Amino acid sequence: MPKPPLTLLLAAPRGFCAGVDRAIKIVEMALEKWGAPVYVRHEIVHNRYVVDDLRAKGAVFVEELDECPDDRPVIFSAHGVPKAVPTEAAKRQMVYVDATCPLVSKVHIEAARHHENGLQMVMIGHAGHPETLGTMGQLPQGEVLLVETVEDVAGVEVRDPERLAFVTQTTLSVDDTADIVEALKARFPAIVGPHKEDICYATTNRQEAVKAIGPRADALLVVGAPNSSNSKRLVEVARKAGCPYAQLVQRATDIDWRALEGIGSLGVTAGASAPEVLIDEVIDAVRARYDVTVERVTTAEENVEFKVPRVLREPA
Ligand code: 0JX
Ligand code: SF4
């Protein structure tokens, strides 16, 4: 039977961002330098394939520092850590390498600066997400108020509405965040913050590409993990852009082929923590069932690269 024709709308940019690339390289360098085991606090990036690959090379993934021995190196994940974590590692004289994305560290610095200037902080982010915990954990407990939605803004209780600042998680929905910022500014006109928000270039660009594809695609697959904030946002953006079916898939085996029956166009993208090998796997699986014509939908060119430290610090 001939395969049905399908236009595959391939998003660009998609997949790995500069912060993810750097964080994975740091773990690989640490393994090369110090040998196994090297401990990693939290998944280095939210992707099972990446984590399993590093685990096979000798990385040991833990959630908290107290699960690490004193005498092995530990790496902090790309999402950032509360200030107490490096403080504790130093106290235990551990060798540690911070793989926090420089764009997340920038938000940490901003929060600390506002705090030093006597401003109370509001963070727009998702409760319990490691980046939110890390950013809030830059300041003493209770100093950062979390808001997740426009509705939350009405209930937030501040010390002094004249002395307020806000920061955001880097992987939020650009549009939802704009609404929350607007609500904050309406309620607290004196609030200060970044020019728009702290959403990074990679998050913004991946959402833009999905917005271009969404209205044209009968369905869209986002390659990414269920705990990956930026990947989940891409599914929401696709649905909002008018795509009737948008689904997160970790890899090809997750694809629900029945849901794709009868489609003529399929969007494909990937979150910032999803490796290209998994995107290729998904495309190959689509090709096995459809007569595919690939159309690249490019909405931005990316050439961001973050320096990886040339030499990792020697154990004490
Ligand atoms: O859940 P997130 O999108 O914050 O993380 P993920 O999927 O690991 O993406 C890369 C790290 C992003 C940090 O900002
Ligand atoms: Fe950095 Fe953005 Fe990538 Fe997060 S998604 S690691 S902030 S570049």
TrEMBL record:
Q: Which residues bind [4Fe-4S] cluster per the record?
A: 17, 101, 200
Q: What is its EC number?
A: 1.17.7.4
- Pfam families documented for this protein: LYTB
Q: Which UniProt keywords apply?
A: 4Fe-4S, Iron, Iron-sulfur, Isoprene biosynthesis, Metal-binding, Oxidoreductase
The cofactors named for this UniProt entry are:
[4Fe-4S] cluster
Question: Quick one: which residues bind dimethylallyl diphosphate?
Answer: 46, 79, 129, 228-230, 273
A single GO BP annotation from the record? isopentenyl diphosphate biosynthetic process, methylerythritol 4-phosphate pathway
The record ties this protein, via Gene3D superfamilies, to: 3.40.50.11270, 4-hydroxy-3-methylbut-2-enyl diphosphate reductase, catalytic domain
Kindly list the residue ranges recorded as spanning the membrane: none
Which reactions does this protein catalyse? dimethylallyl diphosphate + 2 oxidized [2Fe-2S]-[ferredoxin] + H2O = (2E)-4-hydroxy-3-methylbut-2-enyl diphosphate + 2 reduced [2Fe-2S]-[ferredoxin] + 2 H(+); isopentenyl diphosphate + 2 oxidized [2Fe-2S]-[ferredoxin] + H2O = (2E)-4-hydroxy-3-methylbut-2-enyl diphosphate + 2 reduced [2Fe-2S]-[ferredoxin] + 2 H(+)
Please give the function described in this protein's UniProt entry. Answer: Catalyzes the conversion of 1-hydroxy-2-methyl-2-(E)-butenyl 4-diphosphate (HMBPP) into a mixture of isopentenyl diphosphate (IPP) and dimethylallyl diphosphate (DMAPP). Acts in the terminal step of the DOXP/MEP pathway for isoprenoid precursor biosynthesis.
Name the family.
Belongs to the IspH family.
Q: What is this protein called?
A: 4-hydroxy-3-methylbut-2-enyl diphosphate reductase
Organism encoding this protein? Histidinibacterium lentulum
Which lineage ranks, top first, belong to the organism behind this chain? Answer: Bacteria, Pseudomonadati, Pseudomonadota, Alphaproteobacteria, Rhodobacterales
